[in-house]
Amino acid sequence: MEIFLPAVLGELATRSVSFVINKYSELPVQAMQINLERILLRAQVIVEEAEGRHITNQGMLRQLRMLRDAMYQGFYVLDTLRYRAFEEDGAGDNKVRNYSWALSKFSCAKRLCLSRSSSTKAAQELVAENVLDSLRTMILDASESVMFLTTYPRLHRQPYNMHILLGNCMFGRQMEMELILHFLLHTQPCSGRHDRFDVLPIVGPAICGKSTLVAQVCNDERVRDHFSQIAIFRHRTFRDEDIDILTDRRTMRHEQHRKLLIVFEVVGELNDDLWGSLCSLSRKCTTGGSKIIITSRSDKITKLGTTQTMTLKHLPHEAFWYFFKVITFGSTDPKMHPRLAYLAMEISKMLNGSLISANVIGGLLRTNFSTQYRCKILNFMRESVEKSTSVHGEHLCDLLAKNKFAYIRRLGTTTEDVFISSHYQTCSSQEELPEITATDVVYGGVRPQGAFKVLAWKSPLPPYHCYINIYEIQQQQTRLVRKRHSLNNSGIRPA
Prior knowledge:
alpha/beta, five-stranded parallel beta sheet, flat, four-stranded antiparallel beta sheet, disordered C terminus
């Protein structure tokens, strides 16, 4: 008893001191959040005003991109500080684990995840202070540029709500769009080896938005008024109708100065003979001022450019979270549902920057504001990612982007997997789309027999790509039997 009583008193004293310290340490954190909210509001005003204008100054575009990236980092840090109480308490029956490996190596989100894994609030707050100081400096540096924003013409009026805006234009690619517009409308014809046209190569990984970006530019009225015709090719070989566009004698007869914009989307490896045929036809059928845009996943096309190659990358995690938050909550303010926002933030880390997954999962979450449902989706995503990483050594979204086969467990069952054998993209006008969607199979109760096609996602933006997957629902016991059968046929004894 003599030993027990001092121990209890000591524990009570320690907890009392910790309570007082935590209570007063929250005051500067709250002040930091208020300051960060204010500075982010100023940054948001500048960025949204700039995105509503046609800016041609390249230096101003670079400065605005830096400010926009810092703004996304700021919102990510602010949301992390807001929702970290749910991480400490746990969201329902879901304790958060560290998934910092899914983030970029040097990103702000990575540093915050490492801070959480070491349970160091001070490190998080230090990151917040650095982001706050960076935003202040950038806004101060951009103060002179802001005065010149009003000198640039306004673009077409856009919807006020961001979730409606994302259904009409691309997210986070304003600078790239302006650079392409500058190339198409203002670049003088070169006098080098391509004496009749200039070539802009655009390189980027799969499903990062190359085709969508070019389609947005091609739909711009200024581009359509500037060129006599716009031809888009996405085939391994030229079809007769493609050649007819370039050799349209009726158009050539009535237009002495026929400026043509040719978009060439390379499928797979670049075919040198096909490229030579395209250049030869273009020289014969176009006049000076015609332009070519060529897109590919491979950087081999850079040698074809007459101007600097544009390289597209996936969105940084901070910008991806901003995008996913808008998709998930729509017109609802996430601050009104902090626990749901926290769960959405954890789910976004499982998506590895996949825009298709963001739209599919975000659509599901937007229709169901149940905490239990979001916890179920979060657990499901974690299990799928962990399984894919342990079995294949790659993230599930990376496997699908590389068109490799993968297994996904169906939500609500432990005995069935969805086997994804392949996938491809098409346009809604090229073929009849499947009536069954991926959400019907993975998250719903639809269970077709055998191999079948599903519509994973349909883009609301031109060129309206549709992503089709080939699914087959398999029992786990059946998979085990097939595996043993294949091992026996190969002469290998299973362990």
